[in-house]
Design brief:
alpha/beta, Rossmann fold, Dihydrodipicolinate Reductase, domain 2, 12 helices, globular
Amino acid sequence: MKLAVLGVGHWHAPGYLDDLVRIPEAEVIALSDPCPEAVERAAAQAPRARTYADYRDLLDAEAPDLVFAHAPHDEMTALAVELVARGLPFHMEKPMGLDWRALDEVARCAMAQGLFVSLPLVTRYFGVASRLLDLRAEGALGDPLYFSFRLFAGPPQRYLDMHVPWMLDPARAGEGPLFNFGPHATDLFLALTGPQPRRVTAWATNALYGLAIPDLVGYLVEADGGCRGVIEVSYTTPAGYQRYFSLTTTTLDYGGAADIGVIHLRDGGTMDVDGPPGDEGYHTYVRDCLRRFAAGEPPLVGMEQMVAVLRVLNAAQRSLREGGPVEV
């Protein structure tokens, strides 16, 4: 399987490359990024790959089977338009853009072609989250009542250290953690609760760093089915990641990590779930993405799911600006 990796300056690209070069059936044939230093760093990971400054030159010259595509948030939808127009199957980092309406048009074109487009909303691969999604598919989850997800990460200085200063520009990256981590939590809420959300109320703080982006964004999502979800995402913890997850339904209750824990059933029983651990999410995703593509299967998460997530994030944006609840 011949692979091209676009936007190797994105902070997730080194992790993907590290996995891809270790998979025997995968061959990284080409890399691109407008930053020469980023291309040089990526070429050290995939020394046999040809390198390009402009991804369009790469796509004109190469014939990859699958593209791993990355870009600043404000450039993602245009990159998706290019790949869909060329009929190239691809993976793309979230959030695929900053406007759900623009992405929706591209998604419709991709779906009309039957094009494979995969997104790494990797929380779905975590052990507890995956088991709850299986229960929903089996009709055993019950009616969701309450949902909460808190994903707290380290200071935004790390994005300067990783040579992606655009992550601190709200015009390019959106409201900081909202568009960075919000997709993971929002996707899980939508996947577990089902009905279209009808109202979002958001809040933000900017008490730690004095940047143009907030350090914490929280939002309440109210679904047509009555379930309420509280999501908080931030750059507030001194180091690493902290994740807190809970779901209450008419048949079960869970509170703890999203990967390993005990699901409590209302009939008195329990379900012990053992991994895989959360830090394996992206590694699991890479292998599953390639497997699904090779087998002709749809991706676990496609563009239509990302459009639904962006609708909620855009509603949260409007709520922050208007200072109250907004309809989705």
